[in-house]
Amino acid sequence: MSLKACIYDLDGVITDTAKYHYESWKWVGDQLEYNLTEKQNQKLKGVGRKESLDKILKWSGARISEAEKQNLLHKKNQMYLTYIDTMTPEEVFEGFKEFNQKAKESGIKVAIGSSSRNAIRIIDKLDLVLDFHAIVDGGMTENSKPEPDIFLLAAEKLGCDPSECLVIEDSQAGLTAAKKGGIKSILFGTDKGLKGAQMQISSWLEADLEKFKKLF
Ligand code: BG6
Ligand code: MG
Fold first, then answer.
1. CA 47, CA 83: separation in Å to the nearest integer?
2. How far apart are CA 88 and CA 85, in angstroms?
């Protein structure tokens, strides 16, 4: 078996949006009279929008109606988009474009597999729309990470078997999703204690395609 495709998560792997999510979720916390910490925000990495609100509601103990939930989700996203709309191509992590180009030149298919419903908007702001063979976002599948649907759809769009793909992820939800889908994964970033990846790299400058191929 050989490596045929890389499926990248977006948030935290290609660019840092966690800080924008945090500002917006903190505002939601304030509305619930709850102080959301940065550590808690870390636990929302890779988790879908609605599921993230459910977690915050659970932590805060607040009980609100379905209509209030929808209102908070809408307002959170409006706030998040005001941050996203200021993003520029300079916010792509160093070394990503070079790695991606090299992978494509060696015949590897590349896709985005993101839980975010804003993925295409972010990719557009980063000027990366033409850099992938496929983009799958949180609006395209019924289940979000930690279920494997997003990655399985990305593999299908690339015409590859999941066993020939490699997921690059920064979150536990994403690593679990890859594992459930029978896909090997690389943990991106410096977080410790996350489970399920075959290898960890702290930045794209460390990414070595030859080493990735040896995982297969
Ligand atoms: C993931 C992020 O990529 O997308 C999560 O890591 C976020 O923090 C999720 O909640 C959903 O994003 P959005 O843009 O649809 O609210
Ligand atoms: Mg992520």
1. 19
2. 8
Tokens of 185: 């994964």
Domains of the chain and any CATH numbers: 5-16+91-213 (3.40.50.1000), 18-84 (1.10.150.240)
pTM score, two decimals? 0.96
Range list of H helices, the chain: 18-31, 38-42, 49-60, 66-84, 96-105, 119-125, 149-158, 172-180, 209-213
Whether 131 is a known active-site residue: answer: no
Please tell me the residue having the least CA distance from ligand 1 atom 12: 116
What percent of the chain shows pLDDT beyond 70? 100
Flag whether pLDDT at 1 surpasses 90.
Answer: no
Name residue 110's beta-bridge partners: 6
Active site residue 170: no
> What is the rounded average pLDDT of the residues 207-211?
98
Q: What is the pLDDT of residue 12?
A: 97
